[in-house]
Specification:
mainly alpha, 137 residues
Length: 137
């Protein structure tokens, strides 16, 4: 689409009068267009930190080469995709909660045992006090 013939056909009148000058203008135009495009690409690359992002993407690709299992791909059914991502997390969380619950129940059993022992000691002391009170009277 940027051929010299096409450029010359757009400026036919000028080309007929001075074909060499038309060629020179075309060459300058293409040169400036290429440098402008390169400059724009360089600015976009710097603004978006694309070089760093491309390097990290290369690193991810290199790491993925060592994997045996295939990468996860969406199935196209959002419910199943969400379920496949959430279920392992929720199962792990449930396991953690069950562990914490077991620890708390064990702690509660120890505290309940301690409370019962305290009540028994109080009952013994009350009986001892009652016995001494009757003995004194």
């Amino acid at each position: 689409s940027c051929s010299y013939q096409r450029f010359a056909s757009c400026y036919r009148c000028f080309y007929k009068v001075q074909p060499q000058l038309t060629r020179s203008i075309y060459d300058q135009f293409i040169s400036q267009l290429q440098s402008s495009i390169k400059e724009e690409i360089h600015e976009i690359k710097n603004e978006g930190n694309l070089e760093g992002l491309f390097n990290s993407l290369d690193k991810i690709v290199e790491e993925a080469k060592d994997r045996e299992e295939p990468a996860w791909r969406p199935s196209g059914i959002p419910e199943e995709d969400v379920r496949s991502a959430l279920v392992p997390y929720l199962l792990k969380h449930r396991s953690y909660l069950r562990k914490v619950l077991g620890e708390k129940e064990e702690e509660n059993r120890k505290v309940a045992k301690s409370v019962l022992a305290g009540r028994d000691r109080i009952a013994e002391l009350q009986q001892l006090i009652q016995g001494r009170k009757q003995a004194w009277q």
